[in-house]
Amino acid sequence: MSARPGRPAPVGFAEVPDFHVEVVRRASPELESRPLLIGGDPAKHGKLLAMSAELRALGLVEGMGLDEALDRAPAARWVATDMRRARDVSGLLRAAVREVVPAVEIEGLAGFYLRAPREPEAALELAGRIESRVMQNTGLPLRVGIAPARFAARWAAEDAGPCGARVIAGEDFESYLLHQRVERLPGVGPKTAARLAELGATDIPTLRDLGLERLEVLLGNHGRSLWLLACGEDPKPLRVKRHPATLSREETLSENDIGEAAWTASLTRLAERLEGSLRRDGLHARRIALRVTDESGRTITRSLSLETPVSSSRELLALARELSNRIGSGSGLIRRLAIVLKGLEMSGAEDRQLDLF
């Protein structure tokens, strides 16, 4: 069975390779040439989250213990995981990509799926614009792959190296597939690869030779999925979307949560959760509303439009407390609090880059 004709529009995949390492190196330029291990405290059985590319040749893998990783790579420098900074940089990265392609599917902190043009020249031009904007706004390298299926787009990005782009045109897709090892297929780990090798399937052609029925008998639904992937069919659909128009977080108060102290504690938690959501998408808000519901079920809402957009929990909390003062004490016992953000916009990356790097 070969790849089927009449495919949908090509899929693009863009990512910053070794994202956590890049974040550390841009925050600490003196570490640019050092091999790095990013993760938890090795003295507390911390795990390896990320590593610089050259260390993979030593057999290191994400998730192993940091103490073992340091034993295998004694020349490497350990740097503690800083997820707050990573999420901040991820927000800048998302904002930069969305300046070029407004609708994307987010993959982790540093990956994006997107719809791409069918013409290879136009696809390369789009990849170049995304790569340029990301470098301009964040200083991070980006690699882009474009192919007729999302899993192959990721392969193409990996083939592009630490940065740059590779496009697999529709007419070249079948040939590209036939040159791949089974280990590259999604869902093929060491155990599955070993089982397939026992059956004589080490690459896509020999996997196809096993046939759909035999794969289903041997591996069940997983075997069917592998067959479809080997034939160029990705069962996972592309789900791109623009950044959200609104964000809200709410909290129900217990009978013991009475008075200003309880309100402030609840509003603080809500503001911190909203800050995290804004950071992850690289957004800020131009309008904020506070919604309270009393024990009778009555809801009161107060809102503010802002001249200067906000995104920090400190700013959000101050505004929410201002709005709570406008509600007053005559609303009875409060059972639910909600902060709603509207007028969401992508953050200005230029000033934020100076803060982060």
Structure description:
- By secondary structure, this protein is an alpha+beta fold.
- Among the domains are: 26-81, MutS, DNA mismatch repair protein, domain I (3-Layer(aba) Sandwich); 180-230, DNA polymerase, domain 1 (Orthogonal Bundle); 247-356, Dna Ligase, domain 1.
- It is 41% helix and 21% strand.
- The strands form three sheets. It has a five-stranded mixed beta sheet. Strands 9, 10, 11, 12 and 13 form a five-stranded antiparallel beta sheet that branches.
- The model is unreliable at 1-5 (pLDDT under 50).
Please render the helix and strand layout as text.
Blueprint: E1 11-15, H1 19-27, E2 36-39, E3 48-51, H2 66-72, E4 77-80, H3 83-100, E5 105-107, E6 111-115, H4 120-138, E7 143-147, H5 150-159, E8 164-167, H6 173-178, H7 190-198, H8 204-210, H9 212-219, H10 221-230, E9 247-252, H11 260-281, E10 283-294, E11 299-310, H12 313-327, E12 334-342, E13 345-346, H13 349-356
